[in-house]
Specification:
- The complex is a heterodimer of chains A (about 230) and B (about 220).
- With about 230 residues, chain A is of the alpha+beta class.
- Chain A is built from 9 helices and 4 strands, in the order E-H-E-H-E-E-H-H-H-H-H-H-H.
- In chain A, about 55% of the residues lie in helices and about 5% in strands.
- In chain A, helix 1 links the parallel strand 1 and strand 2.
- The longest helix of chain A is centred in the middle third of the chain and has 30 residues.
- In chain B, strands 2-1-3-4 form a 4-stranded mixed sheet.
- In chain B, a hairpin with a 2-residue loop joins strand 3 and strand 4.
- Chain B has 2 domains: about 100 residues, Glutaredoxin (3-Layer(aba) Sandwich); about 100 residues, Glutathione S-transferase Yfyf (Class Pi), Chain A, domain 2, CATH 1.20.1050.
- The two termini of chain B are about 30 Å apart.
- In chain B, helix 4 packs antiparallel against helix 5 and helix 6 crosses helix 7.
- With about 220 residues, chain B is α+β, with helices and mostly antiparallel strands.
- The model of chain B has no long low-confidence stretch (mean pLDDT about 95).
- The chains are: A alpha+beta (about 230), B alpha+beta (about 220).
- Chains A and B meet through strand 4, helix 3, helix 4 and helix 5 of A and strand 4, helix 3, helix 4 and helix 5 of B.
- Chain B: It holds the Pfam family GST_N.
- Chain B: This is glutathione transferase.
- Chain B: Belongs to the GST superfamily. Alpha family.
Chain lengths: ~230, ~220
């Protein structure tokens, strides 16, 4: 039984945002159910919908998929965004691993104290500009193509654009040493499905705020402190 | 140009161990180059071998692969340990990601400060026995088959066995409430390639000891 994929998560970015990006890039319409109360979460738990008691969860193609990486890999493969063979997949997996690590530093950001936020911001920018962006800049420079892998639009391109925009939200001129990435950003952003996702009114979520943090803590009963890297 | 895969890491389990397991399970011989000093790491970083300046790195099939998941995905795909279609891959991926999460928890135990160790250990046991192991016990119970997915050995089985053994190193009776996982453990351990890997003299690494930590940390 198909129908549109249905995403179960908070009304915010978190770990689900990459899934929204990828579905949108693939031109796949999806529905969302936002967790707002503890009761909703417990209902999902009791119904056995969450394999490891965690969200994200995505109902698609008769499955209740959990684990963000599993979901993204499935979507990428289904919609031909995962390269044409094992070796292209290997490259995509490597590149996505890097952007995943980079976005992981940003994931915890809203949960940090004000002081730790400043530390983490500096950490994110430092890692982005000294470790991650140089790697992708070089990939693009070396082959001179528009897309990261196989001269063809893939999951790696979507994930990198997502990461670039997220880091720019922490420091708007962070791409200033990276001309290839600037051009990449412009090109990928103007692809029709991505352009649509970047417009107001799309299902893209805004930068997480205190309300989001409060909701997550309340629903998950996650009241412990989170430390910066 | 093939030849054996070559693994670049420290002489310890860490993030390379699942790769050793998977190659061994697939019957693939591999070589290892151990980082012993900070300079060894710097050398790899400056000669452009490490995409994100990090290890693990595995030289395989003309590539210098980094990112543990990418390497595991490639090895699994190449040696038919990744299911027969997209849906089996999806199940394998879900199971494997859960195993990776539990693995991370166990791995991080040894790095806890003395005053947090007991609490963290309790968390490991709690999560292992209430969140993760029940899932795999149920999977095996529901289909009654020998392997987690598709009635065939896959990376999910290999990675689950690895994590079960690591969990038991923490607490020997970790599987007390999980009879199917106990027989799973025996069964998968008996598969020839895996049995060989579990014997002394294989490339399997021992658990990290407290005394090794300073030496390893100064490399990174």
């Amino acid at each position: 039984m198909s129908g549109k994929p249905k995403l179960y998560y908070f009304d915010g970015r978190g770990k689900m945002e990459s899934v929204r990006w990828l579905l949108a890039a693939a031109g796949v319409e999806f529905e969302e159910e936002f967790l707002e109360t503890r009761e909703q979460y417990e209902k999902l738990l009791q119904g056995g919908a969450l394999l490891f008691q965690q969200v994200p969860m995505v109902e698609m193609d008769g499955m209740k998929m959990v684990q963000t990486r599993a979901i993204l890999s499935y979507i990428a493969a289904k919609y031909n965004l995962y390269g044409k063979d094992l070796k292209e997949r290997a490259l995509i997996d490597m590149y996505v691993g890097g952007t995943d690590d980079l976005m992981g530093f940003i994931l915890m950001f809203p949960f940090l104290s004000a002081e730790d936020k400043e530390k983490q911001r500096a950490f994110i920018v430092q890692k982005a500009t000294s470790r991650y962006f140089p790697a992708y800049e070089k990939v693009l420079k070396d082959h001179g193509q528009d897309f990261l892998v196989g001269n063809s639009f893939s999951w790696a391109d979507v994930h990198l654009l997502e990461a670039i925009l997220m880091v720019e939200e922490k420091k708007s001129d962070v791409l200033s040493g990276f001309p290839q990435l600037q051009a990449f950003k412009g090109k990928i952003s103007s692809m029709p499905t991505i352009k649509k996702f970047l417009e107001p009114g799309s299902q893209r979520k805004p930068v997480p705020d205190d309300k989001y943090v409060e909701t997550v803590r309340r629903v998950l009963r996650m009241y412990y402190d989170i430390k910066a890297n | 140009m093939s030849g054996k895969p070559k693994l670049h890491y420290v002489n310890a389990r860490g993030r390379m161990e699942p790769i050793r397991w998977l190659l061994a399970a697939a019957g693939v011989e591999f070589e290892e180059s151990f980082l012993e000093t900070k300079d060894d790491l710097k050398k790899l970083q400056t000669d452009g071998s490490l995409l994100f300046q990090q290890v693990p790195m595995v030289e395989i099939d003309g590539m210098k692969m980094v990112q543990t998941r990418a390497v595991l995905n490639y090895v699994a795909g190449k040696y038919n340990l990744y299911g027969k279609d997209l849906k089996e891959r999806a199940l394998i991926d879900m199971y494997v990601e859960g195993i990776i999460d539990l693995n991370e928890l166990i791995l991080s135990n040894i790095f806890q400060p003395a005053d947090k160790k007991e609490e963290h250990f309790a968390t490991v046991v709690d999560k292992a026995t209430k969140r993760y192991f029940p899932v795999y016990e149920k999977v095996l119970k529901d289909h009654g088959q020998d392997f987690l997915v598709g009635n065939k050995l896959s990376r999910a089985d290999v990675q689950l066995l690895e994590t079960i053994l690591m969990a038991e190193e923490c607490k020997p009776d970790m599987l007390a409430k999980f009879p199917l996982l106990q027989s799973f453990k025996a069964r998968i351990s008996n598969i020839p390639n895996i049995k060989k890997f579990l014997q002394p003299g294989s490339q399997r690494k021992p658990p990290i000891q407290e005394k090794d930590i300073p030496r390893l940390m100064q490399i990174f």
